[in-house]
Amino acid sequence: MNILVVDDNKSSRSSVIKFLSKLGHKVEEAENGADALSKLHARSFDLLLTDIKMPKISGLELLRTVTALPMGQKLKVVLFTGHGDLESAIEAIRSGAYDYLLKPIKVKVLAELVEKIEAQCNLLREAEKQVKVFLVHDNSLTSQGLKHVLEKNKDLKIIGEVTPCQFGNLDLGRIQADVFIIDIDSLEDGDLSIISVIKQGIAETKVIVLCSKADGRNAKRSLKEGSHSILSTHATPEEIIYCINKTMEGGTYIEPKIAKYLFANTEDNLPLYSLTEQERRILASIGLGKTNKEIAEELFLSTYTVRTYVSNILQKLTIPNRTAAAAFVVNHRQLLEELR
Known about the structure:
Blueprint: E1 2-6, H1 10-22, E2 26-30, H2 33-42, E3 47-51, H3 59-67, E4 76-81, H4 86-94, E5 99-102, H5 107-129, E6 131-136, H6 141-152, E7 156-162, E8 179-183, H7 193-201, E9 206-211, H8 216-225, E10 229-232, H9 237-248, H10 256-259, H11 277-287, H12 292-299, H13 303-317, H14 322-331, H15 333-339
Parallel strand pairs: 1-2, 1-3, 3-4, 4-5, 6-7, 6-8, 8-9, 9-10
């Protein structure tokens, strides 16, 4: 863990730092509250250990200042004090301190407390790494199967679910989802505007739609509304996980069972022959679900240049986005390979 020790007593401060360093932690020191605030602004810490009695800015004042700042939302604060100042320690707990230690500090007690905090920090980090998924479905057997697949994967976390009828009651601004998965077969009257509503309400979130393979028309409409990837209701667990991971990386996944229904009879309207050789290479990479960064590295281009190419490709093919481009590649792969 990254730990900051604050104490105006150099001897006391040094002994705590030496002990924590031996336990394998990265420890920094501050001799007063002002110095501590400066270091807290400069870098991120997991734990702040501070004496309560210090000149100018006391440990209690430091606690109140830190917990009021964004940096203090995840920071654990432990104060140490003498037997005669227990009232201040109790006040510190009320003000948001994680715990307090009595002086002289017993190394065993300190070690146990730090170990406990480290375990909690590790759990929090693991939780933050998880992809947060929000489901919109009608509780069908297909949707229940999807939930089962997601719940078995430790890198994914379902943070909420609603039926299409309940969706209108959501406060999207309060939902911190990385990806929405929508069963569009369950939407009333095939109203896919829910996709654009989500994208407007949570700009950074991804949208994956789930539909029956016989529903190519709705799949195409979902692309126009802004969906990032498309899965069929018959997708395997491996396909579902791959799709989510690829989408979160900034790529695209169109399940082949769905792709063949998209742009099936539109070759005359999609002038593939008008693309340059480099544009065809980039289009083929989009079809493989690669991100702009991956394409740039592969072709020794800048990401800005790749973005420009992608924009030109979409314009020439008169298709709305890279997800639609990926579907187009799947449906015209043979012709694209012949032209390359």
